[in-house]
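call fold(seq) -> C-alpha cells
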Amino acid sequence: MQMENRKEHWEKAYETKSPEQVSWTQPIPTTSLSFIKDFNLPKDARIIDIGGGDSHLVDYLLKDGFTDITVLDIAEAALEKAKARLGKTHTLVKWIVSDITKFQPAEQYDLWHDRATFHFLTTPQQIASYIGIAEKAVDNFMVIGTFSENGPAKCSDLPVKQYTEIQLEHELNSFTKLKCINEDHITPFNTIQNFLFCSFKKRHAPA
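ret:
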C-alpha cells in the first residue's frame, strides 16, 4: 500500500470508528508501562510514542510526571482524538503527523516506544527505512510491541508481518536486546491477539 493510501486508510479508521470498534484499543497499557518502569528514566527523558494514535499511554506518562513526550501518528484524526481526551494538558505534549517511514526527527530520544506500528511494515524497503530512522533517533532505549508468530495475519483489513523473538532481534541487530515477553491482548470484541514485546538498548560506538 502506498503512503498516500496508508494515510487515507488510517484517517478513515479514526474518523469513522469509536475506540470500542477497533481491535487495538487498550484502556490501560500495562505492559508498555511495565517496560518503561524498568528503565528508571528521569522525568525529563525524551520519549516518543510511534503510531501512538489515540492510545492512553500518553495519559499515563503525563500522570507519572514525564515532561518531554512526543506522539507520532500517520493519522491526524487519531491525534486530534487524543488531544480532545487530554483537554488542556495536550499542550504539554508534542504532536507529529507523519508516516513513520518518512519521519525526519529533529531530536534524539531516550525512549522510542512502538506498540503495533512496526508489524504493518511488510516490505524490506519499509522495514529498512523504519530501522534507519530509529538508529538515528534513538539515544538509549526502545520498546517494540508487534504481532507474534501466533498473532493475526491481518489487522484493520491490512496484512501484517508476524515476528518471533529471534526474527525481531535480527531486524534490530544494531540494538542490544534486553528482554522479550508474549502477551495476549483481548480486543474490545473479545478476540485474542498474541503480541511479542521486546526492549532494546542502543549500541553506542566506542569513543
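The radius of gyration is 16 Å.
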